[in-house]
Structures are given as structure tokens and as C-alpha cells.
Amino acid sequence: MILKQLRLYKNLFFYRYSSSLSTIFALATGYQIRSGVAIIRISGSLATQSLLKLTRETKLENFQPKRLYLKKIYHDKTNDLIDQCMTVWFKGPKSFTGEDVVEFHIHGSKAVASAIYLVLSSFPNYRLAEPGEFSKRAYLNGRLDLTEAEGLIDLINAQTEQQRKQSLYQMQGSLKELYERWRIDLVKSLAHAEAYIDFHEDQHIENDILTDVINKVKVTYDSISLHLQDHRRGEILRDGCRIAILGAPNAGKSSLLNILTQKPTAIVSPIAGTTRDVIESTIDLGGYPIVLCDTAGLRITNDPIENEGVSRAFDRANACDLLIIVIDISTLSINENLTEQIDKHLSDLFTIKSSSFNSITKLIVLNKIDLVNENIQLKFNQLNVNVIPVSCISSVNIQEFLSKLTKYIAEKCTEPSFTTPYLTNERHRIYLTQTVEDLSMFLTLINSNNDLVLAVEYLRLATRSLGTITGVVYTEELLDVIFRDFCIGK
Ligand SMILES: Nc1nc2c(ncn2[C@@H]2O[C@H](COP(=O)(O)OP(=O)(O)OP(=O)(O)O)[C@@H](O)[C@H]2O)c(=O)[nH]1
Ligand SMILES: [K+]
Ligand SMILES: [Mg+2]
Questions:
Q1: What is this model's ipTM?
Q2: Candidate from 300, 380, 392, 397 with most ligand 1 atoms within 8 A of CB, to mutate
């Protein structure tokens, strides 16, 4: 235990030592420049030198931290004027990275940025930052834990309102609080269990200690297990709810896709078998992100290309969170039991490639209601809640369909909350699953009083798995995986 801690401190020490050698810089506002303002951020022990050299000031005291100064900046060797800009600096550790940070808020042109880059690169021990390097330094200097860093990248990538909320809460520590609380509980139990092992034979240590440990571990075990049974809500919100539109040829699948994307995304035609490939489009519905797929009409066919399209439709549908099945209403007979006919229609469609999609939620759209006599339309409105008659041509019931779909998606995702956050990331799921498995081993072994030392080893492994999520425990490899998703300048 102590050895491991020492190794961690050693890593951190080397990190601090080596990072003091290089001061990094990059555009923090992205490379799509040609904007009113762009920000060049510089971080490291030599960062403030750039402030003095570029502004030709001699004393750092002329700049109070966290205050903006309008300055002319110059090439330090040629004395050429580069730009007039706002400058600010943050004294480490009270900065984003925990190191001294300088920012130049320049005019957002490629030429100004390049001129400054050229000057900065000429300074000794200055170099361009790698992707995610500012955030990595923030993590290594204890300004962020890994879940907060992941929240930050998710916030940068957020496309919809609900994604914004979820990632913002995570960036502010919602998951860190939860996972650290569990980890600290387990570390305490571990310490008590170890004390029991070491001393219970020759000293008076109460047997209650062990019972107490078991009870506490059980509570954490239950909480993590519950957290894992989340139907991937947070992950669906983070990655987008995947929806496939399925149905027989000409049912109106592409017409429905075009309504949802509000543009002619897919070709619509009266020719059955128009759509062949899976057509993917990302949309925002009520703040929820959706990855929507139009697919080939499902039928048995001798055409090898169409058949490939049908196979792709099934493959994609199997990977989805929700299916919209479109049925041409005019294929149903009003005088027979409609629910039975719909069930039969679905089972005929699905057996084409012997699937059942049993575990996937389905919303059934009876399209082309405009073709049905108005008196009869009423009958279709009284079907199951997951069946909705619409017309893609006359737009009848389309608003109702959109609200129903939004409701279904809201149920699949989560209304983000700071106090009860959901899992958002496959990486966390892997380590949490490992944690419950180890805790389960601990509980089994300790209850059967088999091997106390081995049982406690599992408890130790569980604390390590939890620590890997927040980054209390880390490897270079892990950090590479996490921070490589960041862009340069973040
Ligand atoms: N009357 C009527 N026709 C519709 C409606 N929706 C679509 N259609 C027509 O039905 C035909 C087929 O529409 P598509 O959207 O291409 O159908 P699809 O299911 O994508 O067809 P495939 O890609 O060939 O499987 C087109 O001629 C559409 O104009 C509707 O609500 N009412
Ligand atoms: K068609
Ligand atoms: Mg189509």
C-alpha cells in the first residue's frame, strides 16, 4: 500500500519536474480561426516570460494576475509590431492547469496567430502543446480528476441542451463525488479489515469490526450494483439515442426521415426498394441527441444488392436503442382486428432475417392515414399507446408523433441531475463492473470464513478499480487514451 503511494508520488514528482522543463502554448479557441478574437494560451513555469517579452514590459509587477491589460505586442527580436491585444495571466496553482498561465486575446487571424507562434517557438523550452495537454497538466496538478476532465471534453463536444447539462454537472464533479465517496468508504473498510487480520489473534480487537466491515461493504456493493442497472441512460444521452426506421418497401420510411431531419436527406419515390444503404443523420429532438437511420425496405428479394441492404437494416436495428416501424395503413383491413394484423405484420417483417428485436422498444407508425376515409381514421386513433397513425404527406398527427417520440427518448436517456448522476462512459462501466465483481468475491470469501487474507486482497482490488475511474490510480497508457480525444489547446 505504502509502496504504491510512494510510486504515485514519485510519478507526480517526475511529472512536475519534467513539466517545469517545457512551457506549452496553443490556440485555446480552436484552429478554425478568422474570428473577432482568438486566445493563445501558454502554460508552464516560464509562461510569464512571454508576457514580458512580447509586451516589452520589464516587471511582472506591472501585471496583476487575473486582470486584463490592453497591450501592443511585438516580435522580441525584430521589434515588429504584431498585434494589439488583451493580455491576462493566472498565477499557479490558481489557474486552469495549476501552473502559471498567460493568455493573449489576439485578433483571430491565421497571420497574427502564426506570427506569435513563431516568436513563442523561438523561446528556450517553449513548445506547441499536444492534444489535451493543458487538461492533462490540470489533472496531474490536482485541478481536475479524470471524470471531471472527461466531463470537460463532453461539454466541448455537447450538441444538445441535455448533453450540455449532463457534461457540465460531470465537469463540476457530480461523478467524482459519487465515486470518491464509495472509494473512501471501501478504503476505510480495507484499513479496518487489515487491522483485524494483523491484530485479532494476539490483541483484543473486537469481532464486531469484521461484521461492521462486511455490512459497510455490502452497502457500497448494493449502491454500485444499482448504479450499474441504469439501462445506459447517461451513455445514451452522451453518445446519442440510436434509432432505426424499419418497415416494408414503400411504407414511407424515407418520407418520415425527411420530416425528422427537416430536409430531403433520403430519396423518396414510389418505386419499392429505393433506399438500399443505411442513411444516418443526427438530430436534436427536445434537447436530446438522436442518431437516426433510414434503412432499406424489408422484403425477401433475389436482387443481391437489395438483399445486402436488408441485411444492413437488420444489423443496424440490432444495435439501436429504439425502433420506429413504419406500416402503410392501406395494407391493413379495417374490418379485421387491427392489433392482430399489426402483430402479424411485424412478425412477418422480422422473420425475413429471423430477428425478434424483443429487447428493443418499438414505436409503430401507421403511415398514409390521408388515404383512409375520415370516419374510419377514428378507429386507428384508439390503438395501443405505442401505435400512432400519421400522414407524411398531409402532416396529420406529425406533431403528436414528435411529442410521443420525444417522450420515449426522454425515458431512454436521463434528465441530468447533479445529485443523482448516471454513468456516462463505457470506461467507467468497465471499472465499476470490475469493482462489484471484486466486492462480490470479498463478500463470498469472508462470509464462508475461508481465507481472510485473500478476501481482503479482493477488497483492495475493488478500491483500485474505483480509483482508476477518478484517476487516484493511473497509468500513462490510461491517460493517453483519455486525453488523446481532446483537441490541441484544451
Ligand atoms: N398518400 C401518401 N403517400 C405517402 C405518404 N408517405 C409517403 N408516401 C409515398 O409513398 C411512396 C414511398 O415513400 P418512401 O418514403 O420512398 O418509402 P420508403 O419506405 O422509404 O420506401 P423504400 O426506401 O423503397 O423502402 C412515395 O411515393 C411517397 O410519396 C403518406 O403519408 N401518404
Ligand atoms: K420507395
Ligand atoms: Mg426509403
A1: 0.99
A2: 392
